[in-house]
Amino acid sequence: MKLKLILLTLSMLSVFSCSNNDDLINETNQVKIRLANISEVRFENVTYNDVNFGSLEPGEKTEYKTFENQYSYGKVDITINDKQFGWIPIDFVGEKLLENGNYTFEYNFDVDGQVLTDKLIRD
């Protein structure tokens, strides 16, 4: 009888002493992202994954903003000379989440070709 009581007590302790994995996930799946305009034109109404970063002058970088569960690309909207540029990802199949850390998306705009390009850099 004592053995059963001891085993029951140990079982209860192990169940109630487990940590909440949600807290660990929230702490570890955060990345900080900033945007950089490496082109020669002004960017207006810049958004990344629906987060507004404002306007960016040539050569300017934004402050970092914290995101959870981000991939190496996302939805981008940038107004350049009163025209909309950007892209919307269709899916993230096969992609891996970014590791914790600071990242910069560098955006360049080719005025002649009217093409917006990006490059992700881990800071």
Ordered list of secondary-structure elements with their pairings:
Blueprint: H1 2-16, H2 21-28, E1 30-37, E2 43-48, E3 51-56, E4 65-68, E5 76-80, E6 83-87, E7 101-110, E8 115-122
Parallel strand pairs: 1-7
Antiparallel strand pairs: 1-4, 2-3, 2-5, 5-6, 7-8
Could you spell the SSE succession in H and E letters? HHEEEEEEEE
Helix amount, in percent?
10-25%
Overall pLDDT, averaged? 85
Shape: globular
Please give the order of strands in the largest beta sheet.
Answer: 4-1-7-8
Overall CATH architecture: Sandwich
| CATH topology grouping | Immunoglobulin-like
Number of helices: 2
Largest sheet properties: 4 strands, mixed
Radius of gyration (CA) equals: 23 Å
Structural class: alpha+beta
What does this structure look like?
The chain is of the alpha+beta class and 123 residues long. It has one domain: Immunoglobulin-like, CATH 2.60.40. 19% of the residues lie in helices and 42% in strands. The chain has a four-stranded mixed β-sheet. A four-stranded antiparallel β-sheet has the order 3-2-5-6, with no helix packed on it. A hairpin with a 2-residue loop joins strand 5 and strand 6. It is globular, with a radius of gyration of 23 Å. It starts with a helix and ends with a strand.
